[in-house]
Amino acid sequence: MSETIWLEPSNNKTVYLQIKNTSDKDMSGLQAKIASAVTSKGYQVVSNPDTAGYWIQANVLKADKMDLRESQGWLSRGYEGAVTGAALGAGITAYNSSSAGATLGVGLAAGLVGMAADAMVEDVNYTMITDVQIAERTKTQVQTDNVAVLRQGTSGAKVQTSTETGNQHKYQTRVVSNANKVNLKFPEAQPVLEDQLAKSIANIL
């Protein structure tokens, strides 16, 4: 996670989810996994955003093979390529597979890339990049100033500004999930990447 998000304690434990996927991978079950993880934290997932205490909005930008240096770069750039945020330490989780000694790792950690003695053996890392926005309902009004810079050809730009008043504080972060294993294929990596993302999002609450 590129940035830590601190939320105020609240008795309104209702959450509205909006999960999108603009990668080229099918992740139709991702929202259900996130909903389950949020529910396990004692929150209720609701369908009406106007009454929810929190909004969780997430977009999977990319899910593909990637070396760990590139993964770290995506994390360092933060939400939508914003100013570099401090990368939080990540652990390694492993599980046993059908072949003895095979493990699957989740997280950003040194030493995940192993040496393969056989030319047919490839150490593979899959990375999933997700931008996350959390909105927290407040008891007071919140004024937000929006600024957008629109490109005009190759040398110009147009700046648009607007101001809105609401009752939410919004926070943004980026979550980078990694799965690493010898000869790993995406169908095997996908559920681990999704589980890691769901856990990270739920633990913000």
SSE layout and pairing:
Blueprint: E1 14-21, H1 30-40, E2 44-46, E3 54-65, H2 68-77, E4 105-106, E5 123-152, E6 156-182, H3 186-202
Parallel strand pairs: 1-2, 1-3
Antiparallel strand pairs: 3-5, 4-6, 5-6
What does this structure look like?
- The protein has one domain (14-202).
- Residues 82-103 and 105-118 have low confidence and may be disordered.
- Strand 5 (123-152) and strand 6 (156-182) form a beta hairpin.
- Helix 1 packs parallel to helix 3.
- The protein has 205 residues and is α/β, with parallel strands linked by helices.
- It contains three helices and six strands.
- The chain has a six-stranded mixed beta sheet.
Overall structural class, as computed from helix and strand content, comes to: alpha/beta
The total tally of domains equals 1
C-alpha-based Rg, rounded: 19 Å
**Number of helical regions:** 3
Shape: globular
Helix content: 10-25%
GO cellular component, one term: cell outer membrane
Membrane topology: Lipid-anchor
Family: Belongs to the TraT lipoprotein family.
Function: Responsible for preventing unproductive conjugation between bacteria carrying like plasmids.
